[in-house]
Write a structure and sequence with these properties.
The chain is α/β, with parallel strands linked by helices and 266 residues long. It is 29% helix and 14% strand. It contains eight helices and nine strands. The protein has helices spanning 5-13, 18-34, 98-103, 105-109, 119-122, 157-168, 218-234, 256-262, and strands at 50-54, 73-76, 92-95, 115-118, 132-135, 172-176, 192-194, 212-214, 238-241. The strands form two sheets. A seven-stranded parallel sheet has the order 5-4-3-2-1-6-9. It has a two-stranded antiparallel sheet with strand order 7-8. Helix 5 (119-122) links the parallel strand 4 and strand 5 (132-135).
């Protein structure tokens, strides 16, 4: 039995003040009427297949990513900065953070594959394009199996990509570049700062250099990952962590070489 995603979201609205509730409800129904239906084309289109979700950690610089062009892949946020080194032949791109979306407007509007963006954060920022699809990612904290309904951001875009991959029917997901280790101000999770100097938390020194970024919520990420792992395993699906030297301890760890061997190609 499918879970009532929309009902859960409407229950969340009950905790809002009138003005906030009115604005959020209007925003939600606008998304529902004009964007939700466009997402249904992706349901089950990769049933039983495998994919890679490519994080943005510095460990990517220790890997040869060229083989990935032969596999189904999800790139996240500013993965386009690595295109100066690799032609990944990405299948999909996902971004839900408002600062990343604002900083990547030109790139996203001209991207060469389907791009999934947060509707609330991309509204009024990213122009309409045939390849751009809009998610409603402000639902109650849980894992959702239907992206044409409100889903949850889960404090990390990787979690959103896991929900999209699930909806598409992927049976096995292989993570790379999910280092799960950040040099940042302690005890200020989710707060916004301007990064001074080179970015040591991502694969490119200019990733957030001199720009706004949300400090990572490492614990919040882990809670989301455990939720994803539970729902995947419950449906006889699997998530593997093939990150080189990653600190995440939620999913079974395998080498990148083993992941390439196990995963089915496009």
């Amino acid at each position: 039995m499918a879970r009532p995603h929309g009902l859960l979201y409407l229950m969340k609205l009950d905790n809002m003040k009138f003005g906030e509730k009115w604005n959020t409800t209007t925003e939600y129904f606008f998304w529902k009427w004009f964007h939700a239906g466009k997402l249904k084309k992706f349901k089950g289109i990769h049933k039983g297949k495998d994919c890679f979700i490519i994080g943005n950690g510095p460990s990517l610089n220790k890997m040869d990513l060229s083989p990935l062009k032969n596999y189904h892949t999800f790139g996240l946020n500013k993965i386009y900065l690595i295109f100066e080194k690799y032609d990944l032949g990405l299948s999909y791109l996902v971004s839900v953070n408002e600062h990343v979306i604002e900083q990547s407007k030109k790139e996203y509007e001209n991207f060469g594959c389907p791009v999934f963006l947060s509707y609330p954060h991309a509204r009024g920022v990213i122009d309409e394009r045939p390849h751009i699809y809009r998610l409603y990612d402000l639902n109650t904290w849980s894992f959702y199996d239907d992206i044409s309904q409100p889903i949850c951001g889960g404090y990390t875009v990787t979690y959103v990509a896991m929900q999209i991959a699930y909806y598409m029917g992927f049976r096995r997901v292989f993570l790379i570049g999910v280092d799960h280790s950040f040099k940042q101000t302690l005890n200020k999770e989710n707060q916004v700062e301007v990064l001074e100097g080179d970015d040591e938390n991502h694969f490119h020194p200019d990733y957030f250099k001199g720009q706004k970024w949300h400090l990572a919520d490492v614990y919040g990420n882990e809670v989301s990952y455990h939720l994803a792992n539970y729902f995947y395993l419950r449906d006889n699906r699997e998530i593997y962590d093939a990150t080189v030297g990653g600190k995440l301890d939620v999913f079974p760890k395998i080498s990148f070489e083993k992941a390439l061997e196990m995963a089915g190609k496009k």
